[in-house]
Amino acid sequence: MFASRTYSDNDLSGGHGFKQMVEETFGVAGAFCFGDFVPYLDWLDFNGIRSRMQAVHKILDEFAENVIDDHIHRRMGEGKLKKEDSVRDMVDVLLDMAETEDQTVSRVNIKAIIVDMLNAGIETSSTTIEWAMTELLRNPAMLARAQQEMESTVGRDRSVNESDVRKFNCLRCVVKETFRFHPPAPLLVPHESIEGCSVGGYFVPPKTRLYVNVWAMGRDENVWKDAHLFKPDRFMGSNKDVRGQDFDLLPFGTGRRGCPGISMALSVIELALARLLHCFDWTVEGEVDVEEEFGLTVPRKNPLFVRRSWRLTAEYPI
Q: Which end of the chain is flanked by fewer CB atoms within 10 Å, N or C?
């Protein structure tokens, strides 16, 4: 989406794959770092976090450099083509800004945005989809309802399109409940107060680091009935949304520091989940575990192993 081409694992150095690098990035970002608590001993790197960070940085930095170089070479090859006559993507826009904004957008800035797009756009969405599938497999009745809703709207002779998703009330309730029960970023992104203020009778001094525990908010019995149960029906007929206006459901944060990718994330998650449910029947052996792995995000600790079988009436390319 941001670079107008598809990248594969071969585009990363050292034989690493994108999935492995994204998981490692979020793993080290959320890991316990001894130096954060005893700064003068940070250089010792007791638990190896610094060396892991440097290894990930090297690989992702090389990838971002290659993306920028590819675009620069293509732009040079286009020669005298007018900008409006060429295909321009997000990296092109950033390069245009770097050329016209008195260098206020540097190459380092562009690389940082590329890496942010890569990490934030992949891991959080895939984690949410995986948790939604996990909970639906633990709730076969809800899984069947979601499939029946899609089948009655779309049929079984074609796959779901993006324009169909807005008609799937049950599916959208499943997505909202997944965000409540398994928020992809359980502490959101750390915030810092600019100036001193009073909140609820407590004085918060400037430069205070603030974490919002949306994982705990979503499981608070004072806010949600049966908070520890996965019940998408709680959102049926409700106007409660995940876009930051309902303060008991904030998977993307809110205000000026809310996630800028809300619309894209919802589109990707809803469409991907709809196609998985509509195109396939799913079975799993034994009990589905829900053990979490701590990091900047909270993915499943163990892979989700399931069997799938094609359920449409014809082989239709997804």
A: N
Task: Write out the H or E segment, with its range, that includes residue 283.
Answer: strand 280-283
Question: Is the alpha carbon torsion for 70, 75, 76, 77 positive or negative?
Answer: positive
pLDDT in tens, 88-137: 888 999 998 888 866 688 999 999 999 888 888 888 899 999 999 999 99
Quickly count: other Cβ atoms within 10 Å of residue 262's Cβ.
16
- Using alpha carbons, select from 153, 169, 152 the residue that is nearest to residue 161: 153
What CA dihedral angle connects 311, 315, 316 and 318, to 10 degrees?
70
Q: What are phi and psi of 27, to 5 degrees?
A: -65, -50
Among the listed residues 224, 263, 228, the one whose alpha carbon sits nearest the alpha carbon of residue 135: 228
User: Two tokens at 209?
Assistant: 């680091």
Cβ-contact 35, 45 below 8 angstroms: yes
75-105 b/e (C-beta count within 10 Å ≥ 16 → b): beeeeeeeeeeeeeeebbebbeebeeeeeeb
Residue 123 neighbours by CB under 8 Å, 6+ apart: 22, 23, 25, 26, 184, 297, 299
Tokens standing for 50? 């610094």
What are the tens digits of pLDDT across the range 132-165?
999 999 999 999 999 999 999 999 999 999 999 9
C-alpha count within 13 angstroms, C-beta hemisphere, residue 229: 9
